[in-house]
Amino acid sequence: MSRLFRNTIPLFAVLFGLAVASCESNFKEVQKMGLSEFTPSGDADSINLKYTDSGRITANLISPKMLDYATVAYPFTEFPNGMHLTLFDKNGKQTYIDAKYAISHKTTNIIDLQGNVKISNQNGELLETEQLYYDQKNEWFFTEKKFKFTSPKGVSYGEGIDFSKDFKKVNSQKISGQVQSE
């Protein structure tokens, strides 16, 4: 084998390796460009929204930040810095909901509440969990996460619960604790 040929093969291998590494790097950059990034069509700070039905306030939403993604394929509204929601029933009784993060899906009318979620009412009932879903259409809450439920009758713990917004109908799973009977 000639000396030139022996020196060319290692040089060719190094150049080929650099070219492949360069192509990989460029390919990764092209892949990154293909990722969809959502840009909100609306951005609001310090919001205080009141929802009405037939002239009656049904809900009051307060949040330090709201991002609206109304122009994406599956529109949603995000509350990255938390939210406080007050729901009003037809008799004016209130249910209070607090979460560190929330996302409302417009096509399903489901709100996903996350991070130190607390829901309480004027009767002294309080449910605490890390994630809770709210079905706006059916006015129904549900989670498969662990929860703590405190009422004037006692405290109970469980994993998995669903209930009406006024706590009148409650279905729980894997429950423990002491509750006074009537």
UniProtKB/TrEMBL annotation:
Keywords: Signal. Gene3D superfamilies: Lipopolysaccharide (LPS) transport protein A like domain. Residues 1-21 form the signal peptide. It holds the Pfam family LptC. InterPro entries: LipoPS_assembly_LptC-rel, LptC. PROSITE patterns: PROKAR_LIPOPROTEIN. This is LPS export ABC transporter periplasmic protein LptC. It comes from Flavobacterium cheonhonense.
